[in-house]
Write a structure and sequence with these properties.
It is a single chain. The strands form seven sheets. Strands 4-3-2-1-5 form a five-stranded antiparallel β-sheet. It has a five-stranded mixed β-sheet with strand order 9-16-15-12-11. Strands 6-8-7 form a three-stranded antiparallel β-sheet. A hairpin with a 5-residue loop joins strand 15 and strand 16. The chain has 14 helices and 21 strands. The protein is α+β, with helices and mostly antiparallel strands and 469 residues long. Helix 2 crosses helix 3.
């Protein structure tokens, strides 16, 4: 529209909304919006809807008119906004000009701009009406869904709406329209809680592996045959693999020979070629993944079948012979590929047999080593432990009592770790060390709450190439 047509009290279009011109100068207009704000704009920033005069925008009331009649008369033709207002509403004034523009902006029967307006074809109108009806149905379905979920209910048809909640719960996205519309914080924890609340998931659904990007499929890499290398025959020693009930993949066992503690570990590396397919897969996974619903191994199942201690009558192992001094310190270490004959025990079975000479001696070594560690400032955390398992959809929580047989195995592994670390340092063998900086303050009370506070104050352990406390 030409600038000369815009004058004081004209009705103009500004950012899609009506405004009244309050003043005009050579370069600027002052307009008043529906919110009552006075804004200085350039003439080219607005479009003329009606030259006026209009006293106030409250005059722009809804108008009744013959929209479909006008559309049928104009099909296939182009007109102007004033002519459209006159044809639909019977005259052209500020209120009908604004109403006519809303018809154009709606784009159901008419489309265009302030200069020219075209009537849509019958096909375009039919398509637009169908799309709007579909949108209305979808909106009503969404509103009904939100109401159900807010009431803690769901039906199978809700799955399509719940997809973004499930994706948020497992970490595939960081937003959820459902949670937003329910006024809940868009967090994985809230998404998980909602899915449990409405029964879309049950308590056996574990979102954490997906959320952390962990591989759940078993590795399929091939393993080489066991090399025909010389192995020390230790089958004359009683080797005890002590583990939880139900464990099928024992990877360590203990023997005692005079003043030497033998720690046998499954010799998995014997089947894995360096930088081979199985090695690369295992390195990518870093460790076995122990979940309540089962274990995802870092190596193919064949490795467990062939190497888990006690699976076969005689098992290949890597055995550490640790000579202990009078204080319980590892004084010497020798490492041997070996053959061992392993007896498997549960912790409960070992606990019941602690009065037998072998287990009693192993326990004495463990208790002596524990006292030594505590004297050096080791921090003990005594909190209740449970094993969580999911079997056939049933969640079971099994308390793990603080058995002395567990202490026996724990301290033997710590002794082995200390001996191997010293051996690696002495022989310049690069290995990964687990180190942990001391906490700033551990002045906490005894008891359960104190133990929990102590654990929270500990700093995260780290893996490094350099030894440390």
């Amino acid at each position: 529209m030409a600038k000369s047509h815009i004058q004081v009290s004209s009705l103009v279009l500004y950012k899609g909304r009506p405004a009244r011109v309050a003043s005009v100068d050579r370069k600027k207009l002052t307009i008043v919006t529906q919110q009552g704000d006075a804004i200085s704009v350039r003439p080219k920033d607005v479009g003329l809807l009606h030259p006026g005069p209009i006293a106030g925008l409250e005059e722009l009331t809804p108008q009744e008119g013959e929209v479909k009649v006008a559309w049928e008369l104009l099909r296939g033709q182009t007109t102007t906004l004033p002519e459209l207002a006159d044809l639909v509403y019977g005259d052209y004034r500020p209120a009908t000009a604004w109403a006519a523009w809303q018809l154009v902006d709606d784009a159901l029967y008419f489309r265009g701009d302030l200069v020219a307006v075209s009537a849509c074809t019958a096909e375009e109108v039919a398509e637009a009406l169908a799309a709007r009806e579909a949108k209305r149905i979808e909106r009503e379905a969404w509103e009904a869904f939100v109401a159900r979920v807010d009431a803690g209910e769901s039906v199978p048809a809700d799955d399509r709406f719940l997809a973004d909640v499930a994706d948020l719960a497992i970490g595939r996205r960081d937003q959820s329209r459902v949670l937003r519309d329910l006024g809940r914080a868009e967090t994985p924890e809230n998404a998980h809680a909602l899915l449990l609340q409405i029964g879309a998931w049950d308590e056996t659904m574990n979102p954490y592996p997906d959320r952390l990007g962990l591989a759940l499929a078993p590795p399929m890499a091939s393993l080489r045959p066991l090399p025909d290398d010389a192995r020390l025959d230790l089958t004359h020693l009683v080797a005890l693999a002590i583990d939880d009930a139900g464990s099928t993949d024992a990877d360590d066992a203990l023997s005692l020979e005079g003043d030497r503690l033998w720690v046998h570990v499954a010799d998995v590396a014997a089947l894995v070629s360096p930088d081979g397919e199985a090695d690369l897969e295992a390195r990518a996974r870093a460790s076995n993944l122990y979940l309540p619903e089962g274990t995802v191994h870092m190596l193919p199942e064949a490795a467990t079948d062939r190497l888990a201690l006690g699976r076969q009558e005689i098992s290949p192992a890597l055995s550490f012979a640790i000579t202990l001094d009078d204080s319980g310190e590892p004084a010497d270490l020798a490492v041997h590929p070996s053959w061992v004959r392993v007896t498997r025990l549960t912790y409960d079975e070992a606990e019941a047999r602690l009065n037998e000479p072998l287990l009693a001696s192993l326990l004495a070594i463990a208790e002596r080593h524990q006292r030594l560690r505590l004297a050096r400032g080791a921090i003990e955390i005594d909190l209740p432990e449970v094993k969580v398992r999911v079997e056939d959809g049933e969640v079971t929580l099994t308390p793990l009592p603080a058995l002395r047989s567990r202490l026996l195995v724990q301290e033997a592994m710590l002794i082995a770790g200390q001996a191997v670390a010293a051996f690696a340092q002495a022989h310049n063998i690069p290995i990964a060390y687990s180190v942990q900086d001391a906490p700033a303050d551990l002045d906490v009370p005894d008891g359960l709450a104190g133990m929990l506070a102590r654990r929270k104050r500990l700093r995260r352990s780290q893996r490094t190439g350099e030894p440390g406390p």
